[in-house]
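Ligand-bound model needed. LJPVP2WV.
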Amino acid sequence: MSKFQLKWGILATGGIAETFARDLWPNPECRGVKDVEHTVVAAASSSSADRAQKFLKEVRAAESAKAYGSYKELVQDPNVDIIYIATPHSHHYQNAMLCLEAGKNVLCEKAFTTNAPQLEALIKKAKEKNVFLMEAVWTRYFPLSIYVRDTITSGKLGPVSRTFADLSMSMPPEKTFDDSHRMVNPDLAGGALLDLGIYALTWVFQTLYTTQKDPKAPSVISTMRKYKLGTDEQTSMLLTFPPTEARGEAHGIATTGMRTAADPDGKGTAGPSIRVQGEEGEIQVFHPAFRPTRTRLVLKDGTVEDKEWPQPGPGKESGWKNGFGGDWQPEGEGQGMFWEADECAHALKEGRKEGKYESLQESLVIMQVMDEVRKQNGLKYPEKIETLDYPANL
Ligand SMILES: NC(=O)C1=CN([C@@H]2O[C@H](COP(=O)(O)OP(=O)(O)OC[C@H]3O[C@@H](n4cnc5c(N)ncnc54)[C@H](OP(=O)(O)O)[C@@H]3O)[C@@H](O)[C@H]2O)C=CC1
Ligand SMILES: O=C1OC[C@@H](O)[C@H](O)[C@H]1O
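Prediction:
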């Protein structure tokens, strides 16, 4: 059987660009995926072509891969099938529009844009150009997430009416980040909500919205603690999902912050950071919400089922390693970003223009919720990054 080849261009060469591109290297067969293959054929850095060249070497790209010193050159490369955008949130709208205008398929890092109108404009452009567009919320594509969603739709938990989800990491911003850092800087659309809170919202949505045949957008009330720069350092949201065919009203409690930790001792002692609750029991997911590897099913009938979900990889002997680091990721195992890459390949192979596990409509509803949360708490980013104007000088 001939395999579908997906040729990637990487736009930006920062931290996550490197992690993602490294995850494209192992043979997909090591995770049981037999019909697609990934190749990094180009990378672009806004700093210099030399930086892009160094990046290509670090991620084990082929010698023939092209290094560009500008994003504009990358989108003109006819050999590139799809572009992965890995710039700060502030730049996603401009960068994605650049790619779409050039007729490229796009996988764009979270948060998709700074606001919902920008995302609507991207969706319109992708339709006009008849290209694929997807938000890189990698967690959605993990086998663990599929298992959780399947457990809900199987009815095992009974009607599910509540999800608690937290992604908080103790990194007091004044001790952790310079004022210019993307985690706190308003010019880069910093703050907990768009960077971390989106994962808490992802768990609320993929359990209470994605699992429904006739999902309806929720209402939200929220509160926010601000950092000295005006961006949020802690945000708490209460979402109400209207009744659907399968269940009555449902509530999602999504919290995020940089001062407290979901897992203070790094051992899970504090308990799960996600609890999905139905009439017959609940399913728990343990920290970190962006890359969990452990679940527990607890049912009223006494069932307790613990499962481990290590990320597959080519093994130590391949000499390959990846990841944010830390003891929790043994060398030779993958980071897990390949699952979303595989979904891009499958979509393009099948002629789909959006992802299977998070539609563009759902990404838009989540963006609208985050807009509303910011509005309720008076958090505005500078006009230059919230604008719909394209091109704009950032
Ligand atoms: N899925 C996940 O687990 C993760 C996702 N992310 C997401 O990825 C994106 C990037 O995050 P991360 O890689 O940590 O960020 P970095 O700061 O490490 O990298 C961002 C890169 O964007 C490019 N860039 C272009 N313009 C600017 C600018 N004005 N300021 C800073 N950088 C600029 C630079 O690359 P160059 O010079 O080559 O152009 C830079 O290296 C964000 O959307 C974030 O939310 C981040 C971490 C984990
Ligand atoms: O997406 C992310 O996941 C991991 C976090 O450490 C990072 O800040 C965030 O961007």
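The pocket of NDP (ligand 1) is lined by residues 12-17, 45-47, 51, 86-89, 91, 109-110, 136, 138, 182, 188, 195, 290 (CB under 6 Å).
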